[in-house]
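Duplicate of #3305? Posting structure anyway:
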């Protein structure tokens, strides 16, 4: 049994490019983001991966990434399940602000805490701990049973919703999760054991010039 779980952060969004806090705001992908998603699909296809079901968030940058990946793999007709539980963390009052402007206003250390710490939330928004409180139950109740039943599963979501998952899968701590950055458009490939822990992890990346 495969027990295949692939996590993919969406490609670059219009607000990533502008260095804006995005959260639950809903910008689309840039041209680069579209190519990142397509390239991820080609990598997965060329390595012989396939999927039976895909999960994504309620936000268009993740949904479009999911669609582009599956399109490159000729899998556009598989089941795709959307859920708000996989949305990016809510950045609250920071949403729409430029990150450099935020650093000028509140200082580098405070903004870094808001972005990377486990349990410090921005004003009016969610911490990573808060994000995990909705992502992990959804993973345990809805996604994991599909993986354990033998379905090959793609999750196309966001930097922080995926950080919450990776923290559990990779057995990271609140201290070590601060240093984790999940790149846009680079698939993380997991194979799980029968006890749901990780058997093997691969970061699927190769030189862009090879495409």
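Output from current build:
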């Amino acid at each position: 049994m495969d027990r295949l779980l692939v996590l993919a952060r969406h490609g670059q969004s219009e607000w990533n490019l502008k260095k804006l806090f995005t959260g639950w705001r809903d910008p689309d992908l840039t041209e680069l983001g579209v190519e990142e998603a397509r390239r991820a699909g080609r990598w997965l296809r060329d390595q012989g991966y396939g999927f039976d079901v895909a999960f994504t968030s309620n936000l268009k940058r993740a949904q479009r990434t999911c669609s582009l990946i599956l399109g490159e793999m000729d899998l556009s007709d598989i089941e795709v399940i959307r859920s708000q539980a996989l949305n990016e963390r809510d950045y609250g009052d920071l949403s729409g602000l430029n990150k450099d402007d935020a650093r000028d206003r509140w200082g580098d250390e405070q903004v870094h805490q808001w972005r990377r710490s486990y349990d410090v939330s921005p004003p009016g928004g969610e911490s990573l701990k808060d994000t995990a409180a909705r992502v992990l139950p959804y993973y345990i109740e809805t996604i994991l049973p599909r993986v354990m039943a033998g379905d090959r599963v793609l999750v196309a979501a966001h930097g922080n919703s995926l950080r919450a998952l990776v923290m559990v899968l990779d057995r990271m701590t609140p201290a070590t999760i601060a240093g984790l950055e999940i790149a846009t458009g680079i698939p993380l490939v997991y194979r799980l054991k029968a006890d749901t822990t990780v058997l093997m992890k691969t970061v699927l990346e190769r030189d862009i010039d090879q495409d």
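Confirmed duplicate; merging threads. The radius of gyration is 17 Å. DSSP finds seven helices and six strands in the chain.
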